[in-house]
Amino acid sequence: MAILERIARLKVLLPFIGIAIFIYIIEDIGANNIINALCNINPILFAISLLIFVPRIIISTYRWKMIADMQGIKIGLPSLIKLNLIGLFYGTITPLWLGDYIRIPYLREETGEPFGKCASNVVIDQIMEFSSLFILAVIGSVLLVKYFPSLFLILFSIFVIFVSAAIFLKKKKRSEKFFRIIYKVFIPEKLKTPVANEFDAFYRDMPALKSLVVPLLLGLFSYILYFTQIYIIALSFSVDIPFDIFILIYPVASLIGLIPVTVSGLGTREAALIHIFSIYGVPSDITVAISLSGYVITMLIPSIIGGIFSIMKVKSEKL
Questions:
Q1: Residue 309: pLDDT band by 50, 70, 90 thresholds?
Q2: From the DSSP assignment, how many helices (H) and strands (E) are in the chain?
Q3: Is residue 11 part of a domain?
Q4: Structure confidence at residue 15 (pLDDT)
Q5: Is 85 exposed, middle or buried (CB count within 10 Å of its CB: 0-12, 13-18, 19+)?
Q6: 54 inside domain
Q7: Is 243 helix (H, G, I), strand (E, B) or coil?
Q8: How far is CA 298 from the centre of its chain?
Q9: pLDDT value, residue 317
Q10: In the 8-state DSSP scheme, what is residue 127?
Q11: Is residue 299 very low, low, confident or very high in pLDDT (cuts 50, 70, 90)?
């Protein structure tokens, strides 16, 4: 019991570590320097960058719809876009984007499908999301191998473990053996039957691996648009990094930002970017300004829209 209490406390404290790193970076560079850098953002470039979010959310949501169609989950693209924005809202305020899984109960409510099947759908979509980011980051780490020799090996190893685990757990029989002890020991007797039913629903209509190639490619394209948004903002600061290199090295910092010690990668992402961008002669204050403005455009503003949708949905349910 004492160990569980310590773990619970650690979970509460972890997000503050990233925030502490972020505050330290701001203090070290100087808040005024960062604010001055942010004031140099070209409003036209800001608007263009913001508009790119529209095709990006459509493409990423269409990927999700493709997976839903494969599983026989009937729902329209506009409804999924709304749910995707709600997931984005909750994802930006939780470490490791765990809040994005709020899409599961929302999807169940919209479609009437079993919870397990909706969970399977969202999990597969998230795997496509993470795999796309991993691929770009691994390629980007090759460009940085001269400066960070072990980076490629670390990211590639994590990616192999991630993919291997996903493939291993894709088979229902293997998962049953893996989770059998958890099911027998930790699931109360009265919940064993419902949990078993949802477990069966999770693996019902599981799409074949080859059918996920197109969703993966759409995920890659969606992320290219994501980093293009940030690159356009970076042009305001006359950053001398070629476009193709920028969209490959930035994912490395974004992946590091997923370490669950902060919210939305604040702090860890900036720390990684400062080291990476220093190779190309970008000052620390400019790097932080690019990261913060990129965060506002790619996640914060869209997540506010998702938050509005979430509030409207709660109000409509009350009515």
A1: confident
A2: 15, 0
A3: no
A4: 46
A5: buried
A6: yes
A7: helix
A8: 12
A9: 63
A10: H
A11: confident
Domains in the chain, number: 1
Among 43, 71, 315, 61, CA closest to 201: 71
CB 302 within 8 A of CB 85: yes
| From 87-101, 132-146, 147-161, 209-223, the region with the lowest mean pLDDT | 87-101
Cβ contact 105:115 at 8 Å: yes
**Collapsed DSSP state (helix, strand, coil) of residue 30:** coil
For residue 296, the number of C-alpha atoms closer than 13 Å in the C-beta half-sphere is 11
CB count within 10 Å of CB 163 equals 14
104 token code pair: 């599961």
Tokens of 53: 């979010």
Closest by CA to 133, choosing from 163, 103, 153, 88, is 163
Tokens of 112: 């009437």
Per residue in 232-266, pLDDT (tens digit) is 999 988 888 999 999 999 999 999 887 765 666 66
What is the enclosing helix (H) or strand (E) of 225? helix 213-234
Tens-place pLDDT, residues 56-99: 999 999 999 999 999 999 999 999 999 999 888 888 766 666 77
* Structural domain span for residue 282: 16-318
- Is 7 within the bounds of a domain? no
Rounded to the nearest 10 degrees, the angle between the axes of helix 43-51 and helix 213-234 is 170
Q: Is residue 2 part of a domain?
A: no
Q: Token pair of 234, please?
A: 């970076």
Q: Report the predicted TM-score, pTM, of the whole model to 2 decimal places.
A: 0.85
Tokens (6 digits) for 159: 């990616």
Tokens of 278: 């220093």
With 0-12 / 13-18 / 19 or more C-beta atoms within 10 angstroms meaning exposed / middle / buried, residue 291 is buried
Report the pLDDT value the prediction gives residue 28, as an integer from 0 to 100.
Answer: 55
